[in-house]
Every structure is written in C-alpha cells, then in structure tokens.
Design a protein that fits this description.
The chain is mainly α. The protein has 26 helices and no strands. The protein has a domain of about 90 residues.
Length: about 450
C-alpha cells in the first residue's frame, strides 16, 4: 500500500521507475491496485510517458476494467486516437464488457477521427450494453455524430434524452455552430433559455460563433450584454468568440477595442483579429498587428500566415509578403499550404510579377486549383501578359472543361495586344466548338 501511495505522489518518470523497480523486487507488481497506480501516472499525468504505460499494460496479467479504461482514455487524447479504438476492440475480443466509463473515451476517439462509421458501430455497442440512457455516454454520442457531420442522428439522440443538463445542450448547440447551421444553433439556444438553463462561457462561445456565421450582430450584442450583466469572466475562449463575432459582422472597431482589453490572449485571439482586419480592408493594421505578435514572441501558426499574407495582398506589400512567406518554415517551422501559395500568387500577380507568380505556382507539390488559376489569369488580364495567360487557360480548361469564359478573357487579351490572327483563330475555335461564355459567368479578379 505504501508503494501504491508513493506512485500517486510521483513528480517525474524517474521517481516512478524507482517505485516500479521496488514493486517488482517486492512482488507487489502482481497486485492490480499497485499496478493500476503506476499505469495511471504513466498514461494520464502530464509528467508521464505513454509508451511506458503501454509496455507496462502489456506485461500485466489479466488487466482489470479500470486499467483498460485508463489506457483507452490516454490513447483517445493522444495524437493517434485510432489506437484507442484498437484497444477497445481488443478488450471486447477477450470478453471484457465495456462500462459507462469506457464509452465516453471511445467516443472521444471516434470524434477525433471524425469517423461516422466508427461512431455508428460504438452506438450499437452502447445499445447492446443498455447504456443509452447514461448522460455521459449520450453526450459522447451527440458530440461524435456532430463532428462527423451527422446532425440528424445527433439531434435525434438529443431530443430523445429526457434528463438533459447544460453540458448536453451545449454539445448540441456547438455541433450546429461547428457545422455552420447557425440558425439551428440560435433556435436551440432560445429553447434552452426558455427551459430555464443558465448558459456558461462554452455555451455562449458557441452561440457567438453562430451569430458570426449568420451576421446576426444584434443578437451577438445581446449576448455581450448578458455576459456583462451576469459578471461572467472574460476568459480567452469567450473573449476570442466576442472578437470573432464583431469582426465577422463588420464591427471592426468594436472587435479591436475588445481585443486590446483582453487580459489574456492566445494565438486564436491574435488570428481572429488579424484575419478580421485583413478581411475588411484594414491591411496595414493587420500587418502591424502581426509585427506586434512577433515582438511579443508569440509563435504564429498557419492561420496567422493566411491572415497576414491576405493583408499584404490587399495592401500590395509584395516585398513584405515575400519576406513573411519565406520566414514561415525557416523561422517558425510552419509548412506552407496551398492557401498560403494562393495568397502569394495573387499578391505577386497584382504587383505585376506575373511570371514570378507562375514560377511559385509551378513549385508547389499540389496542382493549382481554379481559384489560384483564376487569380493568376486576372493578373494576366490586368497586366496584359498573354504568354502566361495562354498557359493558365490551358490548365483551367483541363480542370473545368465547360468554363468557356476563360476563352473570352484570352481572346480579349489577344485583341488588346493587337494579335488579331490569334484573336481570329481562337474565336473560330470557339464558334466551331459551339463555345460561348455562360450567361452570368464572370471572371473575378479580386479573389478573396
């Protein structure tokens, strides 16, 4: 018992290994209670080491349900949640029945994997186990279905469950908001209030996200008043949600005021403000805010770079854009994605560096999409570059064979350049192929 208590008080893996050695020497390791304390520290403690926990578990003869649940819980929160599913399958295979403590962790793994098929199979096991009325299990199912985009099943479970608490209301509202069903989220929030439930900061953050999606500034302002009158703490999550709501609704000055007053900010807060400023044409402010982030030594992520590169694009800051794009991997270890390349291609194209934009696009590991090609074609049109336009049009036709509008853009470029033979040839191709611009189609130069 003394060794077990010491295991609970461990501060490091070095200490735990010493206790583990003593348990082996004294033959206490075969005691399930003692082994479970070791396993719990290795698997769940911030000072633990999951591979050690797995090795320990594999050497325990006939691990009990607590041990299985402990390791499943740890794996569900790990970077490879599919390991939690495999562990659960192995547990069932040797005849261990899951409990109400098992399913929430298994369903957390399903949610992390966004696997609808996995969720449905676990749901079947829940029904067979007679745990379909357990609050924590049902909440796990609602969340797992929601993140797997099966809101019909999530809502069906939610409606059938009679003993609802604030947690399950919040899970369902959050599911709607995360899947961009803003109106449904707001209606459910109204229903929750009418049934006498007092929302917490997590609920309100989801409601504010729905307000941002629907552009419902008036309701968002009411939520803000509710937060103030209830004296709720303006933590990072709630503060960021408010900044996001105001920024998405176009109330940039309100968003900036709130952002500046936040006592604590994380990278999501900075991203929300930078992207909000960039989206509404406050490019210089967004760029300056990024520089401030760097000075405060906050590590930007891929979303930060999308925001600041968009700001550079709108402000025509080609040199700054090049410098920031180059620093992504070199200074911050952030691998550029297609969104970052898209911003740079558009930025360089707008700045007249059409060939440089094309070369950058060629260097990608991905094939350019129609948005990036459209931006480059728009740049070709603005700067009269028919050479690059010809190549871009070919790629766009390969992607969208029925997009005949690009032929119109190219023929107009030929006409503006006085290349009448090419103009006539292309018009003849269009006529013979019965190709004409689709009514209502237009090339958008300013791709967001």
């Amino acid at each position: 018992m003394t060794l077990s208590l010491l295991a609970d008080k461990c501060k490091s893996m070095h200490q735990l290994k010493q206790i583990h050695a003593q348990m082996i020497v004294s033959s206490r390791i075969d005691d399930h209670f003692a082994a479970s304390r070791l396993l719990s520290f290795c698997a769940l403690s911030s000072s633990g080491y999951l591979p050690y926990a797995i090795n320990l578990f594999n050497k325990i003869e006939n691990p009990n349900q607590f041990m299985w649940n402990t390791l499943i819980r740890a794996q569900a929160s790990n970077k490879n949640p599919d390991e939690a599913i495999s562990l659960y399958v192995n547990m069932r295979r040797i005849g261990f029945a899951p409990s109400e403590h098992t399913f929430p962790f298994v369903l957390k793994a399903c949610a992390s994997l966004r696997s609808l098929n996995c969720c449905k199979q676990v749901h079947t096991h829940v029904l067979k186990s007679g745990l379909d009325l357990d609050l924590h299990v049902v909440n796990g199912l609602v969340r797992s279905y929601s993140v797997s985009s099966d809101l019909n099943n999530a809502r069906r479970l939610f409606d059938r469950f009679t003993n609802k608490n604030l947690t399950i209301w919040t899970t369902m509202i959050c599911g709607y908001a995360q899947n961009f069903f803003a109106n449904e989220a707001l209606l459910l929030f109204d229903q929750m209030i009418s049934e006498g439930f007092e929302p917490n900061s997590v609920t309100l953050a989801s409601v504010l996200s729905a307000c941002a999606q629907s552009g419902c500034l008036e309701l968002g302002e009411k939520v803000h008043v509710f937060i103030r009158t209830r004296g709720l703490e303006m933590g990072v999550i709630l503060g960021t949600a408010l900044v996001h709501m105001y920024a998405k609704s176009g109330a940039i000055s309100r968003a900036k005021e709130l952002f500046d007053s936040m006592p604590e900010r994380n990278i999501a807060s900075w991203n929300t403000m930078i992207c909000g400023l960039a989206s509404y044409g406050h490019a210089e402010e967004a760029f300056n805010l990024f520089r401030k982030l760097e000075k405060e030594q906050i590590a930007p992520n891929d979303i930060t770079f999308v925001g600041v590169l968009s700001a550079c694009r709108h402000a025509g800051l080609a040199d700054d854009g090049r410098e920031i794009f180059g620093s992504m991997k070199r200074l911050y270890g952030v691998e550029p994605k297609i969104e970052h390349y898209g911003c740079m291609v558009d930025l360089l194209g707008r700045s007249g560096e059409v060939k440089e934009a094309e070369e950058l696009m060629k260097g990608m590991v991905w094939k350019p999409d129609e948005v990036m090609l459209g931006a480059l074609l728009g740049a070709c049109k603005s700067h009269g570059n028919t050479e690059v336009a010809e190549r871009v049009v070919k790629q766009m036709i390969d992607l969208e064979p029925n997009n005949h509008g690009v032929y119109v853009v190219l023929s107009n470029l030929y006409a503006e350049a006085g290349r009448w033979e090419d103009f006539t040839r292309l018009r003849k191709v269009m006529k013979e192929g019965n190709l004409k611009k689709t009514p209502g189609w237009s090339l958008v130069d300013d791709v967001v």
